[in-house]
Amino acid sequence: MLRYSLKRLLSLVISLAVASLVIFFVIEVAPGDPASFMLGINAQPDTVAALRSELGLDQSKVERYLSWVGGMLQGDFGTSYTYRSPVSTMVADRLWVSLPLAIYALALSTLIAFPAGIYAAARRGKAGDMAVMGATQLGVAVPNFWFAMMLVLIFAINLRWFGAGGFPGWDKGVWAGIHALTLPAIALALPQAAILARVMRSALLDILGEDFMRTARAKGLSRRQALWRHGVRNALIPVLTIIGLQFSFLLAGSIIIEQVFYLPGLGRLVFQAISSRDLIVVESVVMLLVFAVITVNFLVDLAYAAVDPRLRSRT
Amino acid sequence: MSLLEISNLSLSIRDFEVLKGVSLSVAPGEIVAVTGESGSGKSMTALAVMQLLPEHSRTSGRLTLDGTDLLNTNEPAMCAIRGRSVGMVFQEPMTALNPVRTIGDQVMETILIHKAMPPDQARQRAAEVLDRVGLPADRFPLSRYPHELSGGQRQRVVIAMAIALQPKLLIADEPTTALDVTTQAQILDLLKGLVREMGMGLLMITHDLAVVADMADRIVVMRHGEVVETGATRALLADMKHPYTRMLFAASGHRVDLPAAPAPEPLLRVDKAVRDYRLPRTRLFTAPGHFRAVKGVSFTLNRGERLGLVGESGCGKSTLTRAILGLEPLQGGAITLDGEPVFSGTRPNLAVRRKMQVVFQDPFGSFNPRHRVDRLITEPFHLLDNPPTGTARAEAIAEALTAVGLKPEDAGKYIHQFSGGQRQRIAIARALIIRPELILFDEAVSALDVSVRAQILDLLADLCRAYNLTYLFISHDLSVVRTVTDRVLVMQAGEIVEQGETEAVFSAPQHPYTRSLIDAAPVLPDPAALKKA
To answer: Taking CB atoms and an 8 Å limit, are A220 and B113 in contact across chains?
Structure first.
């Protein structure tokens, strides 16, 4: 298990190094000079040159890559071209919204999907299964911003249980923060839960056909006992894969929901940075997201090994 | 008073009648074998006793276990009976255990689910039972996972789960069919010992008459959901009344009449062939290890000769087969057909490849279900430079199909329209169609029922007469190899430990391994000898 974890950790470090190279050079070769963009089209060439040297844009690509990576390792992500403030604080502020939102949404989606998927698999072909499958079909088909707008209409405007948008900041108290993130988290979670429930159901149905489920029944377990004791854990492998993918998506892909609820999250930050050619912010946020995705994959790998002993013993 | 009493049991699944008025009984301490070919309803009879039938099943008749009417027992009560009063062992040990739970947990579960003992006692009992089935805790701790055990060891775990609570009845559905002969002999011994020791009744389902003859006190022969004959083993085998029983017995020991082999003239030469597999790296910067699956094997196969290759799973016979077909490169030695290497450079040598064809075990999996028979059997034509077209192609198809006992009109059908035996005939037609110099039969009759197997073996003998076939017959089934080969190779752990004339090797084996294989293989008794006794 230890060797397995170390191997996964090594592959994590290598992936990160490769990713940082790719991100840096891809963004560097994109056309457009941040200095001239910031100063506008009427700027004097010597002003542009001065700004370029101030931003460090006149250094060689290798030097800039090394100083970027070296800075990141020390928590210094550089200074935003447009806002003239440290990227690390900007990103950190946004991360404090996006990360809890993603975790919140993922928790909700898992809480909805597991029971729904298990329930549907246990009642395959019966009314309960049909109802769950119908609901998940809808959940997959309907875009999350529509859910978001409906939630706002019902819970914010009609019932007035939640605010329609905005984020008060965590200094107003944990409860206030969670309260503000509830509607966005639900809107994000519903489509994800629909997908996850379908994966859970089909994984379980595969397992239910396995020989060892019949063995379990022959030992005297009821259908339900066999399902819970022998089915669910074996079905977790494909489900974990999907959860990993979903978390990465929730962290980076919630820009539309952030827009609908007017949340100061990472999605909006990167969107603004791209429109204003704020390369250093884009690079940092993308790198951060890559880091998150790779870390989540690492955790998923560890979870696989925890679930399935065959993976532990392989090397 | 019998323990299990089945009388006039009928079962239909949807509108299909699976069992028609089946009656049989098992007394305590008695071994009753239910035998028959696929589709006879023998497994369904077992599942009916467990009340683990597929959905949409309807049963009628009477089925009592120790006085309890199982057909009218509700599900919760059935759960209390399964595992406690009746245990079951299945055919496929590789998949019968949950891969993510330890063997100790799984054996304990039988005890705990019936609340028979508190957990610490249950653990103790699990250890005892595993020890009894031949998995002592010092070598096989309870914390082992199924994937760390071999097939035979897993079957022992399954048996341990089934007998943990000393049920009155044990049902074993083809418990040794997936195992090697020596493992089979051990498992059968174990089952016999347990029955004697615990006084259980054993209802054993098997297609193998030789196993039945060796094990059972009584035999029940089934066909198409009906019991055709039943009786005490010796009496029944000595005086088989029903023609189906006689046919089944004759087919099990079927001997074919091979034409004499021509004068030796080498066709395939395998010279000190070595095949290594790379193992996964254990450390990042060390060279990966290798596993030598074939260790310098040498033999010659003459033109017109029928050569057998026997050995247990993992002995390297499949690896050797792939190397002969030129599918994988050798790490040492050479394999030549007619003097030409089967593998040249980095790819199979096509000039040689077209002189060889192969027939695999699985008659269901080895065809593309969306192609018609004519397309399926002409697949080897892609090996030829000038494949026949038009009338010549049609004639080749008709001839190949006729040769294997099918009709030329069958060319337009799809594979699902044929039975297992017919599919294997089509596989042979596919191999024959380019008139190869050598055919490899890789467990080609192992998946077939005995009566169908006998027909296919006869077909092979006929083809030998008509086409002077040269083949290598790879099988774990010694009785089959004995009848369809002139010479035999015995393989163990990547080496050929014995080779020689088939009859000579079987009647006077020299190597201890060959002897152990032959001793372990169950044999059909001679009915005439039984009559006298």
So the answer is: yes
